[in-house]
From TrEMBL:
Cellular component, GO, one term: CCR4-NOT complex
A GO BP annotation: mRNA catabolic process
Name of the featured protein: CCR4-NOT transcription complex subunit 9
Source species taxonomy: Eukaryota, Viridiplantae, Chlorophyta, core chlorophytes, Chlorophyceae
Classification via Gene3D superfamilies: Leucine-rich Repeat Variant (1.25.10.10)
Amino acid sequence: MSKTRPFEYLRLTSLGVIGALVKVDDTDVINFLLSTEIIPLCLRTMEIGTELSKTVATFIVQKILLDDVGLNYICATAERFFAVGAVLGNMVVAQAQMVDQPSQRLLKHIIRCYLRLSDNPRAREALRSCLPELLRNAQFTACLKNDETTRRWLAQLLINVGFPDAAAALGALDVVQPTPMTGA
């Protein structure tokens, strides 16, 4: 994918249409999108796009994950799960390397994707070892201090994957305990 301006405008316009589709919260839409190459295309955009196109692509992946069909699809194979996990992890690292502070909006979508992945028992187990350590770093996550919802999501994620001390450091105390681990 090219990062030249005309291609980026086309990418953003296309992502905008797909983003509008997933906002409807319709399983039929999710099923349709999963029958296309939307996940690999979004993952590629999440890697190389501008901040805005990365944000929209991550939002699309988030909305797909929030549907049970989408979560099951991503978690059905280790290859799919680790493809999504690797891109999300690389995005966290890239956000930490920002000269200014990280994009709160992009981080919000990344954290929500991880939180939803942690609802799947096999994915939750895998996240124990592959969740970026930066998400447990209070200095890195300090940019979320004014975003109570995202702080709560991050605290819940950290509890779900077994890092309650890191969750407590966020100060978001009204999170629930994780669901017991059951067979996949």
